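Following up on my earlier thread - several people asked me to post the actual chain instead of describing it. Fair enough. Here it is, all 73 residues.
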Amino acid sequence: MTIEIWVFVLSLVGVLIAGAVAGFFIARWWFQKQMKENPPINEKMIRAMFASMGRPASEKQIREIMRNVNSQK
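Reply from S.P.:
Thanks for posting it. Predicted structure:
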């Protein structure tokens, strides 16, 4: 039972393409799941954090925290 080289090459290319497509959709699904579970922090969340501590936040403090969070990425 011999397999011709062109059948092997076509099968290999087909498997690689199918793997790339499947990998794309799996990575997309996983990324969307992570974003839903752990949304990025925004100014509204910082204001809520300050409010839960019982103190109002100034715009300067909010901008400083946002700058620190963005520089950590």
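The two ends are 56 Å apart (CA to CA). That should answer part of your original question.
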